[in-house]
Write a structure and sequence with these properties.
The protein is of the alpha/beta class and about 230 residues long. It has a domain of about 60 residues. Helix content is about 35%, strand content about 30%. It has seven helices and ten strands. Helix 4 packs across helix 5 and helix 5 packs parallel to helix 6. The longest helix has 18 residues. The radius of gyration is 17 Å and the shape is globular. It starts with a strand and ends with a strand.
């Protein structure tokens, strides 16, 4: 099942060359378990930074992020790491597959890290790849797969441990329009089936229009998009 997310007064400031850069300025967001939302905005507006903070990769300068009513960044670092590894599934524009490993071995990695027995990890990976339509590609390496197939492998890997929160950062950015449409449809279908809370950053308003909720990042905060 998905997790509830509440973001309040979120601030993220960077310092570069003596200049102070405010990327997030009091961002607010509330998501119920199983919600799906698309986040759009200009390049450099802070969308990726927001996802990193939401997923436990990067601490905010100010404000709070609460997961199921518990503040995330008041926890010990070991607990934040555990949250990131067990509760969050990340999908990126660049899929970060290991080139010398087969599809099934790439997908099995999160289970192996969690010390799931190898046979069970591979069986989970096989089932995940079957679910994303790649049952016939289990033994293929990334270089033998199309861009859309590689992204499907990355999706299967992200969902392997049944995370409560799935964060996708421009997951279709390197795909042609037809393949991008198929991958986004798959993400939404998996969201409906599995119930994970889903937040997707996309530059495409056409793809964002498929989501029940659309948010635009403007001046470091969120506004509901039409």
């Amino acid at each position: 099942m998905g997790v509830a997310v509440e973001v309040s007064g979120l601030v993220r400031t960077f310092h570069k060359g003596g200049a102070r850069i405010e990327v997030l300025r009091g961002a607010e967001l509330a998501l119920q378990p199983g919600d799906s939302a698309a986040l759009v905005g200009q390049s450099g507006s802070g969308k990726s930074t927001f996802l990193h903070i939401l997923g436990g990769l990067e601490a905010p300068t100010g404000g709070t992020v609460s997961i199921d009513g518990r503040p995330l960044y008041s926890r010990a670092q070991v607990e934040i790491d555990r949250f990131r590894n067990t509760t969050v599934g990340f999908i990126f524009q660049f899929h970060h597959l290991l080139p010398d490993h087969s599809a099934i071995d790439n997908v099995a990695i999160p289970a192996m890290i969690a010390r799931v027995p190898k046979a069970e990890a591979r069986e989970r990976a096989r089932a995940a790849l079957e679910r994303v339509g790649l049952a016939h590609r289990l033994g293929h390496r990334p270089g033998e797969l199309s861009g859309g197939e590689q992204q499907r492998v990355a999706i299967a890997r992200a969902l392997l441990m049944r995370p409560g929160l799935v964060l996708a950062d421009e997951p279709t950015g390197n795909l042609d329009p037809h393949t991008a449409s198929e991958v986004m449809a798959l993400l939404l279908e998996l969201n409906r089936e599995g119930g994970a809370t889903l937040v997707v950053v996309t530059h495409s308003m056409e793809l964002a229009a498929r989501f029940p909720r659309r948010l635009r990042m403007v001046d470091g905060a969120f506004a509901e998009a039409a």
